[in-house]
Design brief:
Layout lengths: L3 E3 L7 E5 L4 E8 L4 H17 L5 E10 L1 H19 L4 E8 L3 H12 L5 E6 L2
Parallel strand pairs: 3-4, 4-5, 5-6
Antiparallel strand pairs: 1-2, 2-3
Helix pairs in contact: 1-2
Length: about 130
């Protein structure tokens, strides 16, 4: 299984998914013109990775902005991780949020409440 590395653009986030250490990182701004085209390969990679029964998986998110369709795909990613957690895979989410943006912090904290897997909301300065 190959590592995914995507450099950020004006409207799409950086992505680094590494099967060797189980860390999936996504950050920056996410409002690609075609969200399906951007996220479909990431969803396929995550499914293949989790189906391989990894020792652990960590999703590290540092998104500063997501449009509605990107939010939908991030929820799909979280759902897939939650399913893996329920099946016994050690999964953890680390979502770094702008400490000064109460709306973003609130949105991510609401997401956190929907999942049983370890899910840390970490305030930081952007």
């Amino acid at each position: 299984m190959d590592k995914i590395e995507i450099e950020p653009t004006k409207s799409s986030p950086f992505v680094r998914f590494d099967p060797d250490d189980g860390v999936m990182e996504i950050g920056g701004e996410s409002y690609p013109e075609n969200s399906h085209e951007f996220f479909a390969p990431l969803m396929a990679w995550i499914a293949e990775f989790l189906d391989s029964k990894p020792g652990s998986a960590v999703l590290r998110v540092t998104l500063t902005y997501m449009n509605t369709s990107s939010t939908k795909y991030m929820i799909d990613i979280l759902d897939r991780l939650e399913a893996a957690h329920g099946a016994g895979t050690p999964v953890r989410v680390e979502w770094y949020c702008d400490a000064d943006n109460e709306r973003t912090m609130g949105t991510v904290e609401e997401l956190q409440e929907d999942f049983a897997m370890p899910f840390d909301v970490i305030p930081q300065e952007f």
